[in-house]
Design goal:
mainly alpha; 54% helix; globular
Length: 184
């Protein structure tokens, strides 16, 4: 079986069809992480609007309100809907900007179920470090360092995947590939 990602580097530009690169080439880790950071900035707007909507409708007046777990659950669902919707379409806005598309192992668009599975598995970016911070009652600065450290480790672990994909993508049966935006 031939590895379709074997020649994903710059030295492999001499392909049979030099005009169009293979549609399943994995983006560089640097580009995927830049997209990840941009996605975080865009999610801040989604978080702000969803949090404002929840707080307004529930008359929540401060962050330590007893309904805080409901707000967190609501935001978890909103983020899940956001990602499942856009991933099933192939790209989020950040992915369009960085020319990255998400597909299944065969290069087909994701189903909503597979997108939701990827969303659940993507929490591996945060949950281990958040669990450690909670278990040891770490402060805000220590928690931030721990989360950022784990994010760096998790990103670098993609270097050990045979196709250079993030491990949660491998487990979800998805892959990030180089792609021009599907629509503007």
């Amino acid at each position: 079986m031939t590895d379709i990602f074997a020649g994903a580097g710059p030295a492999s530009s001499a392909t049979p069809s030099a005009a169009a690169p293979s549609p399943l080439i994995a983006p560089s880790l640097r580009r995927r992480m830049a997209c990840w950071l941009y996605e975080g900035m865009l999610l801040f707007a989604v978080l702000f609007v969803a949090g404002w909507l929840f707080s307004t409708l529930s008359q929540m007046r401060d962050a330590m309100d007893a309904r805080r777990p409901l707000l967190q659950g609501f935001l978890f669902i909103i983020f899940g809907v956001y990602f499942a919707w856009f991933w099933a379409k192939g790209q989020t806005l950040a992915m369009k900007t960085w020319n990255i598309r998400i597909v299944d192992r065969q290069g087909r668009p994701l189903t909503q179920l597979r997108a939701l599975l990827r969303y659940a598995l993507a929490w591996i970016w945060f949950l281990p470090s958040m669990a450690v911070a909670h278990a040891f009652h770490l402060g805000g600065g220590e928690t931030t360092v721990l989360i950022l450290g784990w994010i760096a480790i998790w990103a670098v672990l993609s270097r050990f995947h045979p196709l250079g994909q993030f491990w949660h993508d491998a487990w979800a049966g998805t892959r990030l590939v180089h792609s021009l935006p599907l629509s503007r």
